[in-house]
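Hi, here's the filled form for the chain we discussed.

Project: internal
Contact: R.S.
Residues: 374
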Amino acid sequence: MSKAPRYAVIGAGHGGKSMAAHLALMGFEVGLFNRTFDHIQAIDARKGIDLESDDSWPHGFGELGLVTSDYQKILDFAEVIMVVVPSSAHADIARKCAPYLRDGQIIILHPGRTCGALEFNKVYRDSGGQADIVVSEAETFIYASRSDGPAQARIFRIKEAVPLAALPATRTPEVLEAIHPAYPQYIDGIDVLHTGLNNMGAIFHPAISILNAGRIEATHGNFEFYIDGVSRSVARVLEVLDRERVTVASALGIRARTALEWLKLAYDATGEDLHEAIHNQPGYYGIKAPNTLNHRYIFEDVPMSLVPMAALGTRYGVSVRGMDSMIRLANFIHRTDYWRRGRTLEKLGLSDFSVSELTRFVKEGVSYSDKMAV
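And the returned structure, exactly as it came back:
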C-alpha cells in the first residue's frame, strides 16, 4: 500500500474501543463497527472515543471517520480490517463479510486463538468469497485495556512484541509492512500453526476456572484467580496440559514455548515449576476470578482453543487425555458439546491433511485437488 491504510475495527468491546481510539490518536483514518448499533450510539453521537491512560500511553479524544453497524459500509471504508471480538464470533463475521470484501484487503484477528485464520478463511470461501484478501492472526491481543463508559476506554499496557502470521505465511511480510506505521510491535510469527499453538490462554483459563468451579460459584469470584486459584495441585494439571500442547506442536514440527518459557519472556517471571513461576509474577496479584462459570474462559477458550489443539493431537498421534478431560468437564458444566460446537478438523477442512500437507498449506497456500485453497 503506497499510502497509510484506513482501518476498520470490528467489535466495540474493551479491546475494540481502545484500538480504534488509539489508531485515531496516531493520526489514522478509523471506522468502528458493532453489530448492535445501540452499543455504539454514544460513540456515533460524539464521533469518537475518549481514551485514558497514564502518561506513558496514548490518551485524548480519538475522532472516528465512521461508526456503523452496517457490514458493507465498514468494509467499503477500510483497507485493513481489525477483528477484535471473541473468537467464537470469527466464523459468523467471515460469513457476513463474504459479500463485501474486495481484492487487497487485509483481515487481522486479534487474537486468532487456535486455528482462527484457518477457520475464517474456510468459512469465507464456503460463503462464496472470492476476493484476493489476506487473512492473518495475532498470537495475543496487543493491549491490556478496558471500557470505562459508552464512549470511553482505557489502556493499561501495550505489549512490546506480538507475533503475527498470515495464511499463507508467504504473505506475512505484506501484512507487517501495511501496519508497521501504526504497529511496529508486530513481528513475524512464522505461520498460523505457531501463533495458534503458542496460545497460552488455552492452558491457563479453562483449567483454572474448572478446577475452581465450586469456589467461583460460592464466592462469585471473590478470590485472586492466578494466586489463590493456582494451588500446587492445580499447577500440576496445568503442567500436564502444557506438555500436551508442546507435544502436539512437536508432532507438527513446531518448537512451541513452554508455559515456563512464556512466563519468563512475557513477564520475566521464573521458578522451579509452574506453581512457583506463576506466584512470582507480580502482575497476577490483584486479578480477581470470574464471578460466574458462564465466562469466556470456558465458553470461548474451550471450543476455540482446547478443541482444535486436542483435535490436532488426536489426528497426529499425540495423547491428549488432559485436554480431553477439561473439554469433557466443560461439557458437563455448560450442558453442551464443545467437541461438536468447537473448531474441529472437519469444520476447518483439515481432517485429510498429512503433516507435510498441512505444513505446506499454512506456509505456502498450496492447494490440493480434493482439499481447500487459500
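Let me know if anything looks off before we file it.
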